[in-house]
Amino acid sequence: MQSARIHPNDDMFHGSAEHYASVGTQMADFVSHAAALANARSPNVLELPCGYGRVTRHLVSRFYPQQIHVADIMVPAVDFCVEEFSVNAYSIVDPVYEFKNVPDEFFDVAALGSLITHLSGHNARTVMKHFLQKLKPGGVAVVTTHGERSREILGTVDCYQVGDAARTHLLASYDAGQYGFVNYMPDHSLESKTVDYIGDSYGIALIPHQWVSDVCRENGVEILEYRRGGWDNHQDVFFISRE
Ligand SMILES: C[S@@+](CC[C@H](N)C(=O)[O-])C[C@H]1O[C@@H](n2cnc3c(N)ncnc32)[C@H](O)[C@@H]1O
């Protein structure tokens, strides 16, 4: 399945098939690790969001496609994953941060790869609350953030194309222990098709570790493992279990 097509509208593809495969494989490795932490030999897996299947293509080579469920707000992306990988799929509809059409308490493993990285603190809090309810008791989530490692990178270069003022705001918020969120520059090229589809609610967040800890406490879940910059030497990775 690793030779599956890369969709022409896939914003996660930046020109290197090797890098695209490496990032997808790393997330599939995290999902396998989460399944082991959950003691689930034949897990029901949720991948939310799935985009155009950068990760999904690696999940289907290690789990049963009928036990993989993917979801995204972009209907063409969801349709592509169904066609290409024969997984179960949900198009996310209003209220778009509550995922009401995805079953609750059903999944042994749930991956939230690079979603709250793009949302305001308010929307990210709503996402975490509803996403974590998708886990069965004993299930384990993989959640990625722009955190410690992103702060380090953003301190040296405007890696998210947000412009000087927004970059300064993100860094100052983060350093003050606050969740930061800004929009992309109007002429940005990163993830432009996704922003065109979703609108200005989709930007760039910088998220202190403490924010994740607080949200986990509010939702009665536990951080089992933390890997600074663990995804592509960039996004921080949290393994979170529901009792
Ligand atoms: C940075 S991409 C990550 C995609 C995938 N996880 C990956 O790593 O390849 C973010 C994705 O979030 C999706 N998205 C944004 N808002 C969403 C929402 N409210 N519900 C579901 N998906 C959403 C976008 O359509 C996009 O596909």
Topology of helices and strands:
Blueprint lengths: L16 H21 L7 E3 L8 H4 L8 E5 L2 H11 L2 E4 L15 E6 L8 H12 L2 E11 L2 H7 L9 H12 L4 E3 L9 H7 L5 E3 L2 H10 L2 E11 L3 E8 L1
Parallel strand pairs: 1-2, 1-4, 2-3, 4-5
Antiparallel strand pairs: 5-9, 6-7, 8-9
Bound molecules: S-adenosylmethionine.
Features:
7-stranded mixed β-sheet, alpha/beta, 9 strands, 22% strand, binds S-adenosylmethionine, two-stranded antiparallel ribbon, 243 residues, Rossmann fold
Order of H and E elements: HEHEHEEHEHHEHEHEE
Radius of gyration: 17 Å
**Terminal Cα span:** 34 Å
Helical/strand content category: alpha/beta
Count every beta strand, where a strand is a DSSP E run of 2 or more residues. Answer: 9
Q: Mind explaining what this structure looks like?
A:
Keywords: Methyltransferase, Transferase. InterPro entries: SAM-dependent_MTases_sf. GO terms for molecular function: methyltransferase activity. With 243 residues, the protein is of the alpha/beta class. It has a domain at 17-147 and 207-242: Vaccinia Virus protein VP39 (Rossmann fold, 3-Layer(aba) Sandwich). Helix content is 35%, strand content 22%. The longest helix has 21 residues, at 17-37. It binds S-adenosylmethionine. S-adenosylmethionine binds next to strand 2 and helix 7. The site of S-adenosylmethionine has 20 residues, from strand 2 and helix 7.
Quick synopsis:
Keywords: Methyltransferase, Transferase. By secondary structure, the chain is an alpha/beta fold. It has a domain at 17-147 and 207-242: Vaccinia Virus protein VP39 (Rossmann fold, 3-Layer(aba) Sandwich), CATH 3.40.50.
